[in-house]
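User: Run a structure prediction on this.
Assistant: Running it now.
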Amino acid sequence: MNATEHGAPRRPLAVSIVAAFLFAATGISIIVGFSLLFPGWLLDRIWSLNPAGAAMFQSIGPISGLFLLMLGAVISQAARGLLHGSKWAWRFTVSLFTVDACGDIVSYFIIHDAIRTITGVMISSAFLYTLCRRHVRDYFFHPAVMLGD
């Protein structure tokens, strides 16, 4: 394991990649959330990419937009925490991808889209595998890493 001069392990590239993905998810959550809260903007064009998702979110009402904005804020903080080696961020992100994979499996029984289910489970599983590799876990649970915990 590579270590910095202070004895703390260096951040694995995988952590930066997962954090970048979470920052991208933050952006998407914010855009979609604003689109739901303030319909009629130019952002409404994004719904042509997922009309079924649009119908589902719109049936819930504006509260779904508020939920997505809050989710974006939490995910953004988790991404920052990952970059700083915070144990809570690692635990939260592992939980997030576990819940996402389970949600993909449950959604199969609702929408019967095997391709979407398999793709979602594979992506979440890849992130879980990456986060649970020994050198990545060691970055978060090394005694010299005490940032934010």
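The chain has a mean pLDDT of 84.
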